[in-house]
Amino acid sequence: YAAIKAVPAGTIAVGSSSMQAPAHCLVQGHLNERVSPVDGQHYAIGFEMRLPVAWNGRFFYQANGGLDGVVQPALGGVGGGGPLSSALQMGFAVISSDAGHAGAMGPRFGLDPQARLDYGYNAVAQLTPFAKDVIAKAYGRGPDRSYFGGCSNGGRHAMVAAVRSAGEYDGILAGDPGYNLPKAAVAQLYGAQQYARVASAKTAAGLPDLQSAFTPAELQLVAGRVLAQCDALDGAVDGIVSDLKACQAKFNLDTAVPTCTGARDGSCLTAPQKTAFANVFAGARNSAGAPLYSSFPFDAGISGSNWRFWKFTASQTLDTGSVGFIFTTPPLAGRAQGLPFALGFDMDRDAPLVAATAGVYKESALSFMTPPDAANLAQLRDRGGRMIVYHGTSDPIFSADDTAAWYERVQAANHGQAAAFARYFPVPGMNHCSGGPSTDQFDMLSALVAWVEQGKAPDSITAMARGPGNPGGVNAEVPVNWSPQRTRPLCPYPKVARYNGSGDLESASSFTCR
Q1: Residue 469's pLDDT is what?
Q2: Is 16 among the residues known to form the active site?
Q3: Contact 70, 28 (CB under 8 A)
Q4: Given 98, 234, 319, 395, which residue is catalytic?
Q5: What pLDDT is attached to residue 25?
Q6: Has residue 503 got a pLDDT over 90?
Q7: Active-site annotation holds for 382
Q8: Is 301 exposed, middle or buried (0-12, 13-18, 19+ CB in 10 A)?
């Protein structure tokens, strides 16, 4: 233990915002301190726990996102943008972790084989029994129920825990899961190569400026054409594409969006732009046409700033580092990073390295990052565990198509009865974990607890838009013609929120999951 102290009720800073927290005990420390024989760096699994004075008997493992590396405040988000409440506020004991490495290292921790495993699954495996032991010492008994939740890489952690730690958790909450994260990162590099071909400007270094591949006006044009063809498919013209599957069957990029005959002015796309866009949405492929990652659905959220960041910025920064140091075996650490790495990454020669082992790297990235036999949740199911997955249909980095395909495999493995213990809730229009033209504020944790402890399966979960005045923070991409507090039911896949034919278009009560 590095520190143990009493914290009075009050405000806790969380990034650029803050959250009220009840009186609690804060425990901070680390496990498995060591010096790597491979890169000579210092490693440990850092953590913090917050143990509320008014404990409700429950434990929540807060899985953090990105490359981890930072012990975020252990407050326990409930899912969606702008917290309605947190697990700590609700009385849970909460743990968070850096997954075994320091953020200052960036992706270079991938040079150490054990740090790779800690990041992939071992930190959770080590911390789960430790946290339960701390709880037992603090309260005189272990937790009555244990829950695990996170979004993005945290959603991947949750899906891994649903298999590797199925005996430890009663409820799993996985948001926008990057459970095929190495493949998704490769797809980002594929995307950067596509955008580079249609970039209309260069950077100061003389490289293609990916931001110039598609202007905000051009993406808004495509989003508008998606709405024009798909908005009414759920019975309401309301700026939301609820029937995503029907939309993909109907929307045709080539015919729906005008092809430029003159200058690019935001009212058309050039033929090469259409090709690049179609290639990215169809999914990354190698030269033989074999898929390297999932397709992406066309949706209204492709005009958002979050979408632009992941496609045009992260693809030449975050993804190049994670692929170069963590996901390829052996690491491609000797190559120049940034956009040159993305443009030089060979989809035939380099992409297979995510499935490779070599020398001291005994597990491939696909082994240590993805849940083994992800569709087989038999242990979780048989012990009475429950799982909720949600995913923004306009997620630009981890595809909602991939998550839908995963759920269909779970259904097949369970003879069509998967909804008895696992449900997937698409969030129309939402970008990566939040944002986009969507109702992106919701409490998935309470729904999960009610399912686990009371047997109340969630037939729908109400979500709200975060327009001006929302206490959880404002989503600037809520359209101005929506009510700032528009509500919608999120529906378990494959059901869709359909308009009842009458009633307020701003109210969830006017829609039914069918």
Answers
A1: 87
A2: no
A3: no
A4: 395
A5: 98
A6: yes
A7: no
A8: buried
